[in-house]
Amino acid sequence: MNDTTLRVGTLYAEPGTKARGTVPADLGTLTADIPLTLINGARPGPRVVITAGVHGGEFPPIDAAVRLADGLEPAEVHGQVIICPVANPPAVYQGRLNISPVDGVNLNRVFPGDPAGGPTERLAAWLFTHLVDGADVYIDLHCGGIDQVLRDFVGYRVTGDPGLDKATAELAGSFGIEDVILGLTPEGGNSHAAAARRGMSAVLVEVGQLGRRDEATALRRVDGLLKALRHLGVLDQDGSAPAPIREWVWSAGVTAEATGLWYPEFSFDADVIGEVAEGDVLGRIVDPADGSEHTVHAPADGRIFYGMHGLTVAPGTELAALAVPWDPDTAGRADTLRTPGVGAGSDEADPRP
């Protein structure tokens, strides 16, 4: 029997119970109420932390996290599950974009945070101190934001620890998502990278695009999470075999070099976003004042995994990210890859090895 109380701040769940509520996070200039569900299983097992709402405007992950919290019953759980559906309340409720309206900082670029820093850095530190640290597994849920088309994928960082990397690779392959993208170092301010540096199996799960909330996407996300929890032994196995996966590494990122209106020439349909060759035209940036055009070319071969759907862009705006199939004989050489930029787009962008 599990005999450990699960506690986050003033919220706690005894073994075999579920607790829901909010816990205040002191961010210096303000206090944010962080919603949490604690599921403390009746039987021992791993501690799994699941976050969503790190970015505003990414609604499908929030919906899926709430649905999962509603459906998990402590009697069925081995171990402990902490679900945080809105990790960044200022961005979710006020900004609805990747950066916080409080200080203009992207939370998923500053993990594990600084308890003496600005509000967003303090929030990152609070999330790590109160939720992530001490976990065995960390799953951070994202999707294409309100201005972004995106192919579903799971991402994780290679640490160089054979046992940890094997466990994380198996976790990444358990969600039923065909495409898995490897980051070749654990560096950077992304949540899953920071967790990997602390020895946890940590993955980024990107499902859905344009921030659109619909029943099919939500159910697909919940189904993937249940598959992962069965893989981890948190839920009983159902006898299903893991789905085949394809492994990729990032080959290039494309950022705007001009201010204007963005007219991509790739499809807005994530199911048909395809491969491009180096030099292919990806789109045009048009100056609305005089009609002059800046043509954007692919800097390398690769498949487009996400792209900018928004109309207005400025220098540094991330327009697209490309990945190529994983080839350990070449992809590990720094001179073979040109990494995406560090714009406010997808969560592998800081840095994308």
Descriptive account of the structure:
The protein is α+β, with helices and mostly antiparallel strands and 353 residues long. The protein is built from six helices and 19 strands. The strands form three sheets. Strands 3, 4, 5, 6, 7, 8, 9, 10, 11, 12, 14, 17 and 19 form a 13-stranded mixed β-sheet that branches. A four-stranded antiparallel β-sheet has the order 16-15-13-18, with no helix packed on it. Strands 1-2 form a two-stranded antiparallel sheet. Strand 3 and strand 4 form a beta hairpin. Helix 1 (59-71) packs across helix 6 (215-232). It is globular, with a radius of gyration of 20 Å. The N and C termini lie far apart (43 Å).
Offer a concise description of the structure.
The protein is α+β, with helices and mostly antiparallel strands and 353 residues long. The protein has helices at 59-71, 89-95, 119-132, 162-172, 191-197, 215-232; strands spanning 6-8, 11-13, 17-26, 31-40, 43-51, 78-84, 137-142, 148-150, 153-157, 179-183, 201-206, 246-255, 260-264, 275-276, 281-286, 293-297, 302-308, 312-313, 318-325.
